[in-house]
Amino acid sequence: MLEAYLARLPYLAAVALVGVGLGVLVGEPSRLKKVVGLNVFQTGVLLFFVAAAYRSGGRSPLVRDATRDAPSVNPLPHVLVLTAIVVGVSLTALALALVVRVRAEERGGGA
Amino acid sequence: MTALLLPALVALPVVGAALAVLAGDRLGRWVTAGTLALQTGLAAALVGRVADDGPTRTVVGGFRPAVGVELRADPLAALIVALVAAVAGGAAWYAGAVGARSAHADALVLLLAAGLSGVGLTADLFNLYVVLEITGLAAYALVALGERGSARAALRYLFAGTVGATLYLLGVGYLYVATGHLNIDKSSVFVSGLAPSSTLALAAFAFVFAGLAVKIPLVPVHTWLPDAHAQASVSASVVLSALVTTAGVYALVKVLYGVFGVEFLTAVPAVGALVSGLGAVSVLVGGALALRESKVKRVLAYSTVSQLGVVVVGAGLGTRLGLTGAAVHLLGHAITKAGLFFAAGLLSLSTGAKTVEECAGVGKRAPVVGAAFAVLSLGMVGVPPTVGFAGKWYVLVAAASAEAWPLVAAVLASSLLSLAYFGRILARMFFAPPADGLPADAGEPSVGGGTPANADAPTESVGASVLPILAALATLALGLSAATLAQFLEPAVSSLLT
């Protein structure tokens, strides 16, 4: 039972990250921390993709290694994760800019 | 030429957006106008080609379809791309005509058009995530350009939208693990031999549906929408309410039928019931909330939740008639709602009326735009011969022939509710005497009148008043040719169902 869980440790970590991220996003009053929570949440999903690509004993898909004749790990999810990271960075940048503006509006007085 | 048409429809607005920012406020206006005119021309060419030669496809970069990113255009996708180009063009025109134009807002509208065209054309699950996020990024930024307090609405929109998109991505991960490819192939879940009622298939569906439900938005994850759509500027509200939500529903239809397929709906009846049921709940809750709102723009925003509920009801039925109705109502809603936001924006510019109360007597002071607003409202209610009637009628008959009586009741309720919330506005507009609290104007009875507060706007807003009139005419024309439209959509509906 325990072994089965240990073999799926990356998936468990992904679930934990998704849970923690969503918890922070919903529970934290601070907008800045919400942005961090959003990032943790997305990272959990990305970890899921990377974990799905892993093959035990697999070799790198790009670097040729003549001494090893093992199946390569699946490169496609890595490419997807790379793209998703770019999307995440853009979203974080926009979110931070908005946080700054909301705060400026609150400081600026009035309604 | 054919090989370039589909990629060009996605790439052209991106290039245009970059050029518009570089060109600055004055020159950027022409860059934007040129780009959107060209985009509309290309989209019209695509519709013509699909009508003549049937669906067309291109694999970007010349890879095998299973590996590369495939772009595919069936009749529905072609119409959505054409709609995006035309409505985005209208929004840019409005911004120019009322003098609310800046190169940055233009660039965002162009980026939004690029993302939405991508949603229409892509045949790849992961690519769909990317284009949805491009759409989202542009939409969040557009909301933030609105009036005071819009940054807060934009941030809420960003949080909700990103959680939705990321849940969708998780569902795509499940599907990739289960099927081994990302191309939206017809019934790819079943090609891979995955049992429809397996936990994996259900979990993948749950994540994808939950993610897209936030984007559409369906009740109960709609709470970000009213603020975002009401705080944005008029041209931003138009593209958000008419296009971004449309793209969300279209993405749902694409994934539900392209990946999961009708077999999935028949094998797990609970899924169809869940989709249609949430649609019905959206109809009722959205309509009831619209009834309680006092600001015209917020009424229109909640009305979007309610009307898209009807589309989702049709999409969840899994029948030919249901899908046809969903497609017709989706396109009809987009055009009608765009026109309503244009009309509401012009009315508030020329008379200062922003709330339902303040609309008193507006119909007499701005008769042309007021009449267009009335026609468009009746289109939303579903009075024949508007396109709103055609869409709701198809969905209604589809629900009745599936003997889903609660859904029939929900579609009927959607008409009654929209009659109630639009009737409230129209009654004030045309039958109530002008209230005292309004800014007194010179009494000029048209949009050309204008209030002292907008002294420099009126002469230009005459140009913009063409937009609601065009939308009203399109609502009527599409309604009268609904049978032709349904016939044009036939191949798309059949290919979704097989």
Describe the structure.
The complex is a heterodimer of chains A (111) and B (498). With 111 residues, chain A is mainly alpha-helical. In chain A, 73% of the residues lie in helices and 0% in strands. In chain A, helix 2 runs antiparallel to helix 3 (31-53) and helix 3 (31-53) packs antiparallel against helix 4 (75-107). Chain B is an all-alpha fold and 498 residues long. Chain B has helices at residues 2-53, 75-97, 103-121, 125-144, 150-179, 188-191, 199-215, 225-231, 234-267, 269-292, 296-317, 320-351, 362-365, 367-381, 387-401, 405-431, 458-464, 466-480, 482-497, and strands at residues 56-60, 69-73. In chain B, strands 1-2 form a two-stranded antiparallel ribbon. In chain B, helix 3 packs antiparallel against helix 4 (125-144) and helix 5 crosses helix 8 (225-231). The radius of gyration of chain B is 22 Å and the shape is globular. The two termini of chain B are 30 Å apart. Chain B: It is found in: Cell membrane. Chain B: InterPro entries: CPA3_Na-H_Antiporter_D, NADH_UbQ_OxRdtase, ND/Mrp_TM. Chain B: Residues 124-417 form the NADH:quinone oxidoreductase/Mrp antiporter transmembrane domain. Chain B: Pfam families: Proton_antipo_M (PF00361). Chain B: Keywords: Cell membrane, Membrane, Transmembrane, Transmembrane helix.
